[in-house]
Amino acid sequence: MNSQLQQWVEQIKPLDEAAQVRAQAHLDQLTKPPGSLGQLERLAVQLAGITGETIPDLGRKAIIVMAGDHGVCEEGVSAFPAEVTGQMVLNFLHGGAAVNVLARHAGADVVCVDIGVRGDLEHPGLVSRKVKHGTANIAKGPAMTTDEAIEAICAGFELVQQMASEGCRVFATGEMGIGNTTPSSALLAVLTGTEVAGTVGRGTGITDSVLLHKQEVIRRAIETNRPNPEDALDVLAKLGGLEIAGLTGVILGAAASRCPIIIDGFISTAAMLVAARLAPACVPYAIASHLSMEPGHRRLMDAIGLTPVLHMDMRLGEGTGAALLLPVLDAALKIMREMATFASAGVSRSEEA
Predict the structure, then answer these.
(1) Helix or strand or coil: residue 262?
(2) Rounded to an integer, what distance in angstroms lies between the CA atom of residue 281 and that of residue 10?
(3) Which residues are the active-site residues?
(4) Arithmetic mean of pLDDT over the chain
(5) In the chain, which end has fewer C-beta atoms inside a 10 angstrom radius, N or C?
């Protein structure tokens, strides 16, 4: 592993077990049967372990939307043309996309990052971390060099570290890149040994014939590039995307900063799998927001060991599922902060409690 990446990976520490014990003890004193709030209780304990605070104040939240184009679009694997990537980035910046609406509802910032859009975009709200103008066509050769993949990871890591130092306490993953379910499926196939047909979905809504073509393109990409499945960085560089690499850095940066990282859908979870292979210690910092309609999403989460909180039949990406989960985190902490204990409410406890 690159020395800079290794240094950052070593910054990721185990969750604070003492804080988790305190959080569980507090939950057990509240006026309810033990465990009856299910995932809300599990989230409260996890957040305590991540932050080291029994009842953390999450405060400022941000959805990091990484944007990049994909050379594999030349193969006709998407229902939308590649130029939609840049157009949608401007839509994010003008506040008109689904993720903007849901972020406003959740009280979160949307931070849009150009890490590999093909065109040159200008907007005062755009964070420019462009590594290059899109990846190469993976059906013909590597998506990027190893150095380019590392540069994109570093961009995500450094952005999160900077934002955490400025008071951001929760990060969520989002992405924009026409064609990006194709490299995500390729990453899943190689890193988990799954047959390609079991990794590929319809993405933006392709037909049956295009779906079969997409599978063949991925098989060709794997055969052409021959990535080492034991080397996640090699697989990422040869088959991935710049936005996937950037999100890998976001995930590692959040864990190193002891901040929860909310994982969105299929593409974000592909980045999470790469991060987990590079730094297994980052996994307890991750919360899977929802189960995507993409068939490979469940396989990705099973490979990482994550359980989705929401089941909303969504497949948009952008960070929309992650945005929906943010109010659930707030609810879990409000239970911890505002619910009465048996003693304070004068309520008798179960004899088995």
Answers:
(1) strand
(2) 9
(3) 318
(4) 96
(5) C
Predicted confidence at residue 177, as pLDDT, reads 98
Q: Which residue from 9, 36, 109, 111 is spatially nearest to 66, judged by alpha carbons? A: 111
Burial of 208 from C-beta contacts in 10 A (0-12 / 13-18 / 19+): exposed
Q: Model confidence over 144-170: pLDDT tens digits?
A: 999 999 999 999 999 999 999 999 999
Cite the DSSP H helix spans in the chain. Answer: 3-9, 17-28, 39-51, 84-93, 98-106, 146-165, 181-192, 208-225, 232-239, 242-256, 266-278, 296-304, 320-338, 342-345
CATH assignment of 61-327?
3.40.50.10210
What pLDDT score was predicted for residue 352? 58
CA distances from 44 to 77, 112, 288 (A): 41, 29, 14
Q: State residue 338's pLDDT score.
A: 98
- What is the identity of the amino acid at 344? S
Q: What does the pLDDT read at residue 81?
A: 93
CATH of domain 3-55+336-345: 1.10.1610.10
Per the document, the length of the chain is 353
DSSP class per residue in 283-296:
GGGEEE-B--SSTH
Give residue 1's pLDDT band: very low, low, confident or very high (50, 70, 90). confident
d(CA 125, CA 111): 8
User: Domain residue spans in the chain?
Assistant: 3-55+336-345, 61-327
Instruction: Give the residue carrying structure tokens 């996890």.
Output: 46
Distance (Å, whole) CA 105 – CA 87: 23
